[in-house]
């Protein structure tokens, strides 16, 4: 049996063929496949606009820049996320404030955020970055109402959740990244994500002005658009209007991601089958599984369980070439962030989560035989 990791890319013969074709095109970068992918992805998440970038971190950085995050900005996010969700604000010189997570969903606790806002002078905070953690769709309708009350923007970190959704108060399906309640949303196309491009990211929005600014920031802040030029010396001429970055995606990465997108729903269906098999196997055992509300369609980037003897289970599984993972070490405990505070920050729910939770193998090409092997080895050790 092959080694089993917590996540794994699934590259089909069709994926390989489209990359070969893209490599034979006139453009390796800044070509037509980028726009094609953007349009298809926007349709998939039901947003008006999409901007492809080099990775998910770049997407977060450009989103923060587009919203004018600066040294005077203070932004709230979850401590249980990849560090990039917080780092994007630091890249712009701003301050990050953490709020605890919900003990059932492991996403940002809206009541903890509300308490922060209520106990601070008006204008203390500028924005919120909720994370669709593990693929669990945050109820952004509730966050939007809170944000409007305090004049805040929202960046939805949906890296774990393409295809996921929640049902809003009007019984309408709200897909992660559709822009109905967030100013901007971001996605990642890292190999362990639902859609693999090697590396890659996407920003979605329904705001045309933000969309156009993102296009500029992605390419050094440079424009060749005649209507935007201050001078025009000829067809070769361009102007740099602000300080941007080279955060572009290549055409062959876009080709791979577009091919992967075609079977995204198929992959989601298989992830749900795997989750249901875990659920059944662990029912009534020492392995605690996470709850999913009836109004949420989980995207299952990760399958999380809580264990009283996590390290023992983790170590034992490795002996059998089962490579589980812990997602994540609370960001506020990382030395960089700890050194920014005069006293140690304490978030009890996040820290309890970190002490017990393990990410099990969850990817569409995981076979039933492999999953049964994982389950058997866990149940042999879990206490």
Task: Give an overview in words.
By secondary structure, the chain is α/β, with parallel strands linked by helices. 37% of the residues lie in helices and 15% in strands. The chain contains 13 helices and 17 strands. α4 (84-91) links the parallel β3 and β4 (95-98). α3 crosses α4 (84-91), α3 crosses α7 and α9 (264-282) packs parallel to α13 (368-381). The protein has helices at residues 13-23, 32-45, 56-66, 84-91, 110-118, 140-150, 208-218, 251-262, 264-282, 310-319, 335-338, 348-356, 368-381; strands at 4-5, 49-53, 74-77, 95-98, 127-129, 153-157, 165-167, 173-175, 184-188, 201-205, 222-223, 239-240, 288-289, 296-297, 303-306, 322-323, 357-360. The strands form 5 sheets. Strands 2-10-9-6-5-3-4 form a 7-stranded mixed beta sheet, sandwiched between helices.
Major beta-sheet overview = 7 strands, mixed
Distance between the termini: 26 Å
Work out the radius of gyration: 21 Å
Would you tell me the structural class of the helices and strands? alpha/beta
Strand order of the largest sheet: 2-10-9-6-5-3-4
Q: Would you report the number of β strands? A: 17
- SSE pattern, N- to C-terminal: EHHEHEHEHEHEEEEEHEEHHEEEHEHHEH
Q: What overall form do the CA principal axes indicate? A: globular
Number of helices: 13
């Amino acid at each position: 049996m092959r080694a089993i990791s917590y996540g794994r890319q699934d590259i089909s013969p069709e994926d390989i063929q489209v990359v070969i074709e893209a490599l034979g095109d006139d453009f390796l970068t800044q070509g037509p496949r980028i726009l094609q992918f953007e349009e298809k992805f926007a349709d998939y998440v039901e947003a008006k606009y999409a901007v492809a970038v080099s990775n998910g971190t770049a997407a977060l950085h450009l989103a923060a820049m587009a919203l004018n995050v600066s040294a005077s900005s203070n932004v709230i996010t979850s401590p249980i996320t990849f560090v990039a969700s917080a780092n994007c604000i630091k890249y712009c010189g701003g301050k990050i404030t953490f709020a605890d997570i919900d003990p059932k969903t492991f996403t940002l606790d809206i009541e903890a955020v509300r308490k922060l806002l209520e106990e601070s002078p008006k204008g203390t905070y500028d924005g919120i970055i909720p994370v669709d953690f593990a693929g669990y769709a945050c109820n952004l309708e509730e966050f939007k109402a809170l944000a409007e009350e305090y004049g805040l923007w929202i960046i939805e970190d949906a890296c774990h959740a393409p295809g996921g959704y929640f049902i809003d108060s009007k019984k309408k399906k709200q897909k992660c990244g559709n822009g109905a309640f967030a100013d901007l949303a971001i996605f990642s196309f890292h190999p362990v994500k639902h859609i693999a491009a090697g590396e890659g990211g996407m920003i979605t929005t329904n705001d045309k002005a933000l969309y156009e600014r993102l296009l500029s920031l992605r390419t050094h802040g440079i424009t060749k658009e005649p209507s935007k030029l201050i001078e025009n010396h000829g067809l070769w001429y361009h102007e740099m209007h602000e300080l941007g970055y080279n955060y572009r995606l290549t055409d062959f990465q876009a080709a791979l991601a577009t091919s992967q997108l075609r079977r995204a729903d198929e992959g989601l269906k298989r992830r749900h089958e795997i989750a249901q098999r875990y659920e059944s196997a662990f029912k009534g055992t020492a392995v605690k599984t996470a709850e999913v509300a009836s109004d949420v369609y989980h995207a299952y980037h990760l399958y999380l369980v809580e264990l009283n003897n996590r390290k023992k289970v983790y170590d034992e599984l490795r002996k059998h070439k089962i490579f589980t993972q812990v997602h994540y070490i609370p960001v506020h405990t990382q030395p960089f962030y700890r050194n920014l505070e005069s006293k140690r920050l304490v978030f009890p729910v996040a820290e309890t989560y970190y002490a017990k939770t393990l990410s099990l193998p969850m990817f569409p090409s995981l076979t039933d035989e492999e999953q049964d092997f994982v389950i058997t080895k866990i149940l042999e050790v879990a206490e």
